[in-house]
TrEMBL record:
Residues 151-406 form the GS catalytic domain. Residues 64-144 form the GS beta-grasp domain. Belongs to the glutamine synthetase family. Signal peptide: none annotated. GO terms for biological process: glutamine biosynthetic process. Keywords: ATP-binding, Cytoplasm, Ligase, Nucleotide-binding. One of its GO terms (cellular component) is cytoplasm. It holds the Pfam family Gln-synt_C. It is found in: Cytoplasm. This is Glutamine synthetase. It catalyses: L-glutamate + NH4(+) + ATP = L-glutamine + ADP + phosphate + H(+).
Amino acid sequence: MVICTPVKYHKQVWAPHKLRVVLLVLTDTEVTCNTVNMASLSLSSGLNKSVRQQYLNLPQGGKCQVTYIWIDGTGEDLRGKTRTLDSEPESIEDIPEWNFDGSSTYQADGANSDMYLIPVRMFRDPFTLDPNKLVLCEVLKHDRSTAESNHRASCNKVMEKVKEHCIWFGMEQEYTLYGTDGHPFSWPARGFPGPQGPYYCGVGANNAYGRDIVLCHYKACLYAGVKICGTNAEVMPSQWEFQVGPCEGIEMGDHLWVARYLLHRVCEDFGIVASLDPKPMTGNWNGAGCHTNVSTKQMREEGGMQYIEQAIERLGRRHSEHIRVYDPRGGQDNMRRLTGLHETSSINDFSSAVANRGASIRIPRQVGQDQRGYFEDRRPAANCDPYAVTKAIARTCLLDSEEEEE
């Protein structure tokens, strides 16, 4: 379908899916036409969802579908497969171990490909509904040693050591919506939207792209039991953020990974892609991070600022170590993002300040006034492994070097 709209002045035009918009620019001497195309959607998203729902509404005869979820060999992507149990599991202990072909997930050789899935946390399934479950799993090799991409096991050991500190985390997951053609969702096909400014927490069709995704993801997380605590549109158009927490210890990584899984599944239904690339667009556009808020029992109590300052001082001494684990490529991804511009610190320097979003560590203004609370580490990239990040922070802030070597 083609729509021609005469206008006196050139302006951006956004259009619904499947409309090809022709913008006429009238001057005193000529008429020109420019086309603006929407980002492409996957073909499967166009399948009849009413027909699908007819089958999803069928009774299950007392059986339960359990979808096993795990992190593959990239350290970034998630995989999942489903099996039937005879009854609804009441706890994680009721879910049996399983296995998968690691040679097809970058985790094993074909000659010895079977790997173990060890269930560690259970959630309700928002796609097929009760009594069905989603189960996050650790991955073990054929000899039951930890897979290289399994950072949960070592993270859990550290969290057990610092258990007395009741360390809380809250992670702010930024992401960018793309069409299947790799172009940001709703951006003009041969150009750019207007400059950053109106998009952060923005409303209106000209400022907020893809809010349906955000609303559905939020509801899916709440249904599943993920500790999602908020969401907002971000600075770059087509970029959004959701927050998970507060979560104590190992719970943080579990809940964020499942929230990511739900995001990708929701986007799949709508035919678009969620990217966690830390710098999705080069140029004068904000990157995507996973800011991590940290609080211990002592930090939350009266006079807690001294413990916040101690933690920040220890983090500063190990800045380069943290940068290496704050993205899956040893800091290479964050080099594109942590430039000192676009609300980031420089990757080469460590800094901290009250209410400064250009610092490595931000102390919220209210915390500065109350002299207790939490701090925000703004260095982790959007595609970080939350197990690696929380492990590094807990180890640096709360363990002595002797304890770390045990």
